[in-house]
From TrEMBL:
It comes from the Eukaryota. It holds the Pfam family RmlD_sub_bind. InterPro entries: dTDP_dehydrorham_reduct, NAD(P)-bd_dom_sf, RmlD-like-bd. Pathway: Amino-acid biosynthesis; S-adenosyl-L-methionine biosynthesis; S-adenosyl-L-methionine from L-methionine: step 1/1. Heterotrimer; composed of a catalytic MAT2A homodimer that binds one regulatory MAT2B chain. Heterohexamer; composed of a central, catalytic MAT2A homotetramer flanked on either side by a regulatory MAT2B chain. NADP binding increases the affinity for MAT2A. This is Methionine adenosyltransferase 2 subunit beta. It comes from Elysia marginata.
Length: 298
């Protein structure tokens, strides 16, 4: 079967790196979809419009749909779960139906927030138990994906960082705004454990999975992938300051659980299934984050 990948959310933090990984490979033909930021060859499709989506998918005829588009900001989801449901669940169901019609399969990008963070490390197949509406919407999306076709793939990842269009595009790079402003104290959470993951590594990892699946059709179901350094937001902020020769005295560790929408304590993902495919490259946090932040300093 021809290797044709349709990447949704290709204007987003992760989608753009996934598209890059496939577009750089002559074995693959790729098309990226976007919505409000459709430019530079990305096709504009509102995924919450089933007819518009169907026309785009049927025209491209993918062998794989890499579904990265989502509403992933927990605070936004909490305020408007119905709107979130349309993109995180209903559009997913529609894409799965279209994939089945074309004999393709779906890789659904999901999150470690489907777990409650009390019993890490989490293996593929472990029961989900989301603490907030965002995690619930992604868990609902996962169910739809595996019910539509057990040969589909659910691919869970933790907090992401990468090349950003603005510092606030990632929950990691946004910390740098406070780190740079040494004139006032910067309170940083030093409670919840995170495993920041570099999107460029992830794009390559997902391509390895798609290539492995082309050879081995039993590679279905749930997969996990994650950076391997456990860091709190405070740890990340201190590293950023050190990398750019900034003082750290204004960075204040807040050891209480984060306020607002409940977030899991430690969702460390067991990545053994991906590691077994030979996906081992994990860019050290210091190296990855430096490359992302350089253009924002001074
Ligand atoms: N970021 C993280 O830390 C993180 C952590 C764990 C899991 N994830 C998961 O990883 C995936 C990618 O996240 P991300 O950080 O790359 O997200 P993002 O940067 O917020 O990008 C979201 C993408 O979804 C697209 N989109 C939203 N509504 C759409 C609609 N109605 N029609 C078509 N496209 C629509 C956006 O397109 P436009 O911008 O062009 O409108 C954008 O490309 C998501 O499934 C998320 O749940 C992310």
């Amino acid at each position: 079967m021809a290797k044709r990948v349709l990447v949704t959310g290709a204007s987003g933090l992760l989608g753009r790196e996934c598209l890059k990984a496939f577009a750089d490979d002559p074995e693959w033909t790729s098309l990226g979809l976007a919505f409000s930021r459709s430019s530079g060859g990305l096709k504009k499709v509102n995924l919450t419009d089933p007819a518009e989506t169907a026309a785009a998918v049927r025209e491209f005829k993918p062998s794989v749909i890499l579904h990265s588009a989502a509403e992933r900001r927990p605070d936004v989801v909490e305020k408007d779960p119905e709107k979130t449901n349309k993109i995180n669940v209903e559009s997913t169901e529609n894409l799965c139906q279209l994939a089945s019609e074309l004999g393709a399969y779906v890789i659904f990008i999901s999150t470690d927030y489907v777990f409650d963070g009390t019993k890490p490390p989490y293996k593929p197949g472990d029961p989900t138990c989301p603490l907030n509406k965002y995690g619930q919407s992604k868990a609902d999306g996962e169910k739809v994906v595996l019910k539509a076709n057990p040969d589909n793939i659910v691919f869970r990842v933790p907090v992401l960082y990468g090349e950003v269009e603005r510092l606030d595009e990632s929950a990691v790079t946004i910390l740098f705004s406070k780190v740079k402003d040494t004139s006032k104290p910067a309170e940083m959470n030093h409670c919840e454990r995170r495993y920041p993951t570099f999107c460029a590594d992830l794009g390559r990892a997902i391509k390895v999975l798609a290539n492995s699946r082309a050879k081995d059709p039993t590679l279905t179901g749930e997969f996990h992938w994650s950076g391997d350094e456990m860091l709190t937001k405070y740890d990340m902020a201190v590293i950023m300051a050190e990398l750019f020769g900034l003082p750290t005295s204004h960075i204040v560790a807040d050891t209480k659980p984060a306020v607002g929408v409940p977030r899991p304590f430690d969702c460390h993902l067991d990545c053994g299934r991906m590691d077994a495919l030979g996906v081992v490259k994990r860019t050290p946090f210091r190296e990855g984050i430096k490359s992302c932040l350089e253009k924002y300093f001074p």
